[in-house]
Known about the structure:
Elements: H1 6-21, H2 27-38, H3 42-70, H4 72-92, H5 96-113, H6 115-126, H7 131-141, H8 144-181, H9 191-202, H10 208-245, H11 250-257, H12 260-273, H13 280-288, H14 290-301, H15 306-332, H16 337-366, H17 371-387
Helix pairs in contact: 1-7, 1-8, 2-3, 2-8, 3-4, 3-5, 3-6, 3-16, 4-5, 4-6, 4-8, 6-7, 6-15, 6-16, 7-12, 7-15, 10-11, 10-15, 10-16, 10-17, 12-15, 13-15, 13-17, 14-15, 14-17
Amino acid sequence: MPGAPARVVGTLGTTQTLAWASSYYLPAMLADPMARDLGVSAPTVYAAISIAMVASALAGPWAGQAIDHRGGRIVLVGTSLLFALGLGMLGAAQDLWMMVTAWLVIGVAMGSGLYEAAFSSLVRLYGHHARGAITGITLIAGFASTVGWPLSAWMETVFGWRGACFGWAVMHLLIGLPLNAGLPKVPAVTKMESLNAANAEHGGASPAPESEHRQYAIALLAFVFAATWFISTAMATHLPRILEATGTTLSTAVAVGALIGPAQVAGRLFEFGLLRQVHPLLSARLAAVAHPAGVAVLLTVGPAMAPVFAILHGAGNGILTIAKGTLPLALFGPMGYGARQGWLMMPARVAQALAPFAFGVALDAWGANALWLSGGIGLAACVALLLLHARPVAH
Length: 395
């Protein structure tokens, strides 16, 4: 089966950029004006966003199973409508509970419309040949913050935060919806394929040792994804404070933080070029060790190594984003990929919801030494990846 055409990669890359920019990257620009207007504190707004992350975790397996059975087009079209609805509700919110309800709707859209859904859609279309396409859409959507933050800030300045929410909702209807509706349609699965998918997910009639080995591998991979998402979310939330705690100035911390985005894209280009010839497990191991290595360099040498830390963290995080799609495909195959991806990412979404608060507490208590926590979590993820085997896990 041939790989994905450029049109499909471009479509999903564009819709993923829109989805990430209008959800994950939205609070950085709109949380403070939203809190002031609604008469609540900024932490209250972020608590609502954490609730949305939990909702996204719960929605993921359902969305993945739907993609396994019907393909990604119908699910992603529905997600475009959900994003538009949730953002419209957020723009119209007049009190705390309306805001929380709006973020819950956005959370369901995130669980059924971010990378996991796009990866599952590609695997449903192209099977084992989806690896290059997965990398391709992450290369495009890697610029979601580059596009989203300035655009949200501009809309907030010109139209207010409510107008910004309405603007993103309209973009989902005018851009995301038609693009997702144009994705290729896949044939419905047969009864035999459904049975095979169930066996792939639950071990079927395999001998008990093989089934246990498969479950062990799934548990290890779920831990890896949760650990790495905790780290990436903690760094995205607290990086300037972390660098200031190591002794850098605020202006230097901001400049160093700006290196992470390009480093992520560089890491993905590296995976697309040199690392695409190796097993995704090797790519993931190299990527997972990058953050702990950066922590060790920064904390032992000092603030002069802050740029090295940012580049290592960003490059590793960029490759791990791809590994979240390619590694389950390589280890478990395309059958039942969507539902399995939803379950694998459920702990990661919960870790993502907890990371800003938990790492903030550690940073307040330990200062720069809180990085040893994230570095230790990263090393644990490395160990888990070393315990996995490159050969496909038997069904």
